[in-house]
Amino acid sequence: MNISVLIRGVSFVMWLLLFGAVALVVIRASRGKPMRSGTLVIIVFAVLAILVSTISSGLVFIQPNERGVVITAVAPGYRETALQPGINWIIPFVESVVTYPISRQTYTMSIAPIEGQIEGDDSITARTADGQEIYVDASVIYQIDPNKVIQVHIQWQNRYEELVRAQARGIIRDMVSKYGVEEVYSSKRDELVKRINETMQVKLEENGLVLVDFVLRNITFSPEYSASVEQKQIAEQQAQQAKLVVEQKKQEAEQARQVAEGRADAAVIEAQGRADARVIEAQAEAEALDLVARVLRENPSLLNYQYITKLSPTIQTLLLPSNAPFILPSTVFPNTGN
Fold first, then answer.
1. Is 67 exposed, middle or buried (0-12, 13-18, 19+ CB in 10 A)?
2. CA distances (Å), 328 to each of 189, 302, 305, 308, 324, in order?
3. Closest CA to 171 of 124, 230, 106
4. What stretches of the chain show up as alpha helix (H) in DSSP?
5. Which has more confidence, 321 or 131?
6. How large is the average pLDDT for residues 238-255?
7. Nearest of 33, 265, 71, 276 to residue 157 by alpha carbon
8. Residue 83 burial class via C-beta count within 10 angstroms: exposed 0-12, middle 13-18, buried 19 and up
9. Are 144 and 68 in contact (CB under 8 A)?
10. What is the C-alpha to C-alpha distance for residues 255 and 296, in angstroms, rounded to an integer?
11. Higher-confidence residue: 84 or 53?
12. Banded model confidence at residue 333, pLDDT cuts 50, 70, 90
C-alpha cells in the first residue's frame, strides 16, 4: 500500500474536520450559544491538519518501475541522487519530485495510420546507394538508464521521445544510403539492422537512454520500382518455367532413348539366343548322324533289320518287279519252311 497516499487522505479528512469545527463554532456563536471549548477544538484540529499535511508533503512513494528526481530550492536546483523505489522523505514545501519510468518503452514509426505514436504516415523515407527511394517502418525499444535519470531530466525532461525519434530517423537514412536497394531487402538486410542497432545504441547512451532492440518492421518501395520488381519476378518465373519444360523434354528424350536401347538389346539377345539354339541343334544333329553312321558301319545288317521291322506285321508276302534286284541279303530272312 502507498502510505503517502494514505497520509494525504488523512490530511484531507483533518482539514474537513477543521472547517467543520470552525463552522459549528461560528453557527453556535451566532445563535447566542457559544461553545466553551470551541476555540480549543479549532486549535487542535488546525494543528493536526497542518502536521499531517506537512508529513504527507514530505513523504514520497516511488514505484518499482520508476525513479524520482528531487527538485529543490537549494542550488544547484536538484538532488544529485535520484530517489529509489519505496518511501522517501523530502523537505516539505521546499522540494518536489518528478518521476520517470525506467521500464521498457517502444517508439514506432509506421506507414500505417494507427500503428505509430504519430497519426498518419510516419514511415522513414530513405534513398539507397543506387538512387532508389524506399519507405522504412521501424520500432525502437528503449528505456531510461536508472543511473542517468537526472541527466535525462536536465537535458530532455519528458521530451526524450523526441530524441529517440530524431536519432532513429537520421541513423536509418544514413545507413540505408550505404546499400543498394536489393541489398537492403535481401542479401544485406541483417547487416543493415546490425549497423543501425550499434550506431543508435551509442547515440542513445550519450543521452541517458538504453537501446534494448531495434526492429526493422517493413520496407516499402516506390510504385515504379515495385512495378519493375514485379516484372522481373514474372520474367524469372517464366524463365524458370521454360527451363523446367526443357528439362522435362530432355528427360522424355532420355527415357525414349533408353527404351529404344533396351528394345535393341533385347532383339540382339533374342537373335543371339536363336543363333545359339540353331548351332546347338545342328551340333546335336551332326553328333546324332555321326553316331548313326558309326553304328551302321559296325552293324551293316541293322539297316535291313530296321527296314523289315518297319513293315506292317500283317504283310506275309512281298512282291517285287521281275527286273528289280533284291536289296536284302538272304541272311536276313531265315528259312521258315515257307
1. buried
2. 114, 11, 9, 9, 12
3. 124
4. 3-30, 38-58, 149-155, 160-176, 181-182, 189-206, 223-298, 301-310
5. 131
6. 82
7. 71
8. buried
9. no
10. 61
11. 84
12. very low
DSSP code for 331: G
Dist CA 268 CA 257 (whole Å): 16
Cell output for 295: 553304328
pLDDT at 209: 97
* C-beta pairs of 108-114 under 8 Å, 24+ apart in sequence: 108/137, 108/138, 108/139, 108/140, 108/217, 109/136, 109/137, 109/138, 109/139, 109/165, 109/168, 109/169, 110/137, 110/217, 110/218, 111/135, 111/137, 111/218, 111/220, 112/137
The answer to whether the CB of 10 falls within 8 A of the CB of 20 is no
Side chain identity at residue 222, one-letter code: S
Provide the residue type at 265 as one letter: D
Amino acid identity for residue 166 in this structure:
A
- For residue 135, how many other CB atoms are within 10 A of its CB? 16
Q: What average pLDDT does the structure give for the chain?
A: 83
Q: What residue has cell string 528526481?
A: 69
- The pLDDT value recorded for residue 55 is 86
For cell 545288317, what's the residue? 301
Q: Which residues contact 105 (CB under 8 A, 6 or more apart)?
A: 141, 142, 143
Give the whole-angstrom CA distance, residue 78 versus residue 150.
8
Check residue 336 and give its pLDDT.
44
Backbone angles phi, psi at 24, to 5 degrees: -65, -45
Find out whether the peptide bond into 76 is cis, omega within 30 degrees of 0: yes
Q: Find the distance separating the first CA and the last CA of the chain, reported in whole Å.
A: 155
Longest Cα–Cα distance of the chain, Å, equals 198
- DSSP class of 145: -
| CB contact at 8 A, 37 and 23 | no
Nearest CA to 218 out of 123, 128, 132 is that of: 123
Distance from C-alpha of 173 to C-alpha of 195, rounded to nearest angstrom: 12
CA distances from 26 to 46, 60, 293 (A): 16, 37, 168
